[in-house]
Amino acid sequence: MSEIYRILIILIVVAAIISTGCTQPVTSEQPAADKGQNPPPAQVSADLQHIADTAIRDTGIPGMQIEIATPQWTWNSAAGNASPVTGEPARAGMRFLIASVSKTFTSVAVQKLAEEGKLSLDDPIARWLPPDLVERIPNGHVITVRQLLDHTSGIADYDESSINLQEYQHPDMPVPYQTGLDQGINASPLYPPGTNYTYSNVNYILLTLIVDKAAGVPYEDYVTRTILVPTGMNDTFFQHTNHIPGPHMSATMPGANGTIMDFTDLYVLFDRGAGDLVSTTADLNRFHRALREGKLISRASLVQMEKPTPQSGKTGYGLGYATEFVAPANLIVQGHTGGYPGSYTFWYYLPEKDTYVTFNLNSAGTSLDNLRIIRTAVLTYVNNGTVVGRT
Description:
The protein contains twelve helices and eleven strands. It has 391 residues and is α+β, with helices and mostly antiparallel strands. It has a six-stranded antiparallel beta sheet, with helices on both faces.
């Protein structure tokens, strides 16, 4: 048999095999559709929109972003106005300042470094911070990383109101995080480390400096590379400029004589690691799900985050994560809240319902009672399908 003839035979056989393979039915099982990505039933959607619209109407808060993700469906919507100044309507998917919900990202970054063996939660902070800074911090040689995470360090907070007002009056002059750091250190110690609980943003600024050192890259880069990118949080970023790009909620508060103070386009660099992220409801639920499902840290690390320190009392605060019983809604929530002038965010996981709830209100210039009324209305419906106030 000639070589050319032999090659032709081989090509014919190979073509027949390929052709036969292409006509075979697919026997592998196709992945099931994620029920949680479906929209809710029409009545549920109508009820939830009614709750959001009513909350905005009754409280006088300009606008709201909300996403609820259950195992069966996901509802993402908005109500009211993104800005009371321009009257732009709020639309689902708009970005907003998440304020102190940023602390959970910082905590997860620290847990990841601990899992990588690059630090220990029980390390004294003196191991990671510059010696001159440690000398300035009262009890700086005995405070641990864990005590920064759970706010039992005894380090005081900075004067956030004055810093925000300073930036509001001089919007092109960012206040560096060192300003708040100095304020907190100068007002410390509040008590010996580990003996009490005081929520302090300064703890989390110090944690970012520890992440810088332990990770070998800036805190922002480490969080972006190990949390934001793997989780697909494409609308989440650090707000270290004085403008939020793309469609976003404004952060406004009532001023004197009927004026409106707009804090939206201020630098938030002063709150590094404590409140400097911008996100969306969908991204925050995506992050929460990845955290709960073990895609970011181990279950053992999450258990540590969940466990409230005894000193925190009813706040139920653990390591950048809190557990709270919401009595009016009769259920437990886990997560964090965040308040920035003109913006307030609730970020929750409901373990009894395996449900994620995130919503943002674009005004902190209302009473805490109004914020709690909205929270109760949303959580009560998720818990038992009751629309508060409807007879």
